[in-house]
Amino acid sequence: PVDVVCLGESMVTFLPTRPGRLADVPSFVRGIGGAESNLACALAAAGHRVRWVGRVGADGFGDHLVAAIAAYGVDTAAVVRDPDRPTGVYFRTAADRVSEGHEVVYYRAGSAASAMSPGTVPPEAVWSGRLLHVSGITAALSAGCLELMRALTARRDGRPPLSFDVNHRPGLWRGTDGARVLLDLARGADIVFVGEDEAEEAWDVRGGPDAVRRALPEPATLVVKRGAEGAVAYTRGAAGDTVTHAPAPVVDVVAATGAGDAFAAGFLSATLRELPVGERLRYGHLWAAAALTVPGDLAEPPPAAHAARLVGLDDD
Ligand code: KDG
Questions:
Q1: 2-6, 167-171, 243-247: lowest mean pLDDT where?
Q2: Is there a domain that residue 259 lies in?
């Protein structure tokens, strides 16, 4: 039995060895990225049973990704190797995603993962966990991937709950109204993660987390992330929404990439353990802090006992 299935494209990531424009960086260090496998790795490192469903090329980068993700303890048996299409790769600058000088260059058009579709991804692999986690990135990869995302977020009577991280990546949505697509997909999920800045950028929602909830009332759980300001969760009950706020810890940010994935992983980990909503948010912040303070896209979350102490669950 699997706790969480994560579906999405993973890529070999090239991290710059120094700050500055990509044009000026002379060398890069290999890492791994991909929002959904970042989340899978974080959950597996914390002891959850996790399966990653994806597609990579039958090439060296594909070998490395599968081995590196499996080394975190993630079940990669459902990963398909595509003999004809390459594994995606991407390069980025060291600077924060929201900063002016941030550059991300993807080499993933026509990648193995972009060949995912309802016909190439078996439903039994996808729905084999207590929870399925996907993100809006997949919807931008190809028409087949979008179709797959539409199928996964459509009515799902009897299926496990669906967790969806909006992950608006404007650079991937050339010409298509990605923002609109992401809102439609988010409406079909049970747990949704979105940044307040992301909601403003994509959907022009201004007025704080409550305005985001008004724009997205359908998910039973909506988490609005506010960066250093903390996060707010809206959880629907019989008497309407409960609104829970949690401040973020103060950290020295090294690189923000991957922090959202770690936040979602921490929140889902605490959800699987049926902790109260406030603790779910605190685990989210704590795991995000681990990712914020490393240069790569993913970090190991703190050991369980240490984490429990940090969020105040363990009083001795
Ligand atoms: O959230 C981090 C991801 O953005 C990164 O690992 C790469 O999946 C990725 C993407 O498509 O940007």
A1: 167-171
A2: yes
Given the CA of residue 38, which atom of ligand 1 is nearest to it?
6
Residue 169 token pair = 């990546």
Which residue segment(s) compose the domain that 27 sits in? 2-311
Looking at residue 57, its amino acid is G
Counting residues of the chain whose pLDDT is more than 90, the rounded percentage is 79
Centroid of ligand 1 to alpha carbon of 26 (angstroms): 22
Q: Domain for residue 291, yes or no? A: yes
Q: Does 45 reside within a domain?
A: yes
Residue with tokens 């940044």: 195
CATH number at residue 154: 3.40.1190.20
Could you confirm whether 75 is annotated as catalytic? Answer: no
Helix segments in the chain, DSSP class H: 35-45, 60-71, 123-126, 136-139, 143-153, 178-187, 196-203, 208-215, 259-272, 277-292, 304-311
Which of the 8 DSSP states describes residue 118?
T
What does the alpha-carbon distance between residue 38 and residue 259 come to, in Å, rounded to a whole number?
10
| Per-residue pLDDT at 248 | 93
Q: Tens digit of pLDDT for each residue in 35-74?
A: 999 999 999 999 999 999 999 999 999 999 999 999 999 9
Tokens of 59: 């090439």
Give ipTM to 2 decimals. Answer: 0.95
- How many independent structural domains does the chain possess? 1
Q: 255 or 234, which is more confident?
A: 234
Ligand 1 centroid, distance to 264 Cα (angstroms)? 13
Per annotation, catalytic residue among 75, 190, 261, 297: 261
How much distance in Å is there from the Cα of 80 to the middle of ligand 1? 20
Let me know if residue 199 belongs to a domain: yes
Confidence (pLDDT) at 277: 97
* Per-residue pLDDT, 306: 80
Q: What would the two tokens of residue 288 be?
A: 């995000």
Q: What pLDDT does residue 99 have? A: 63
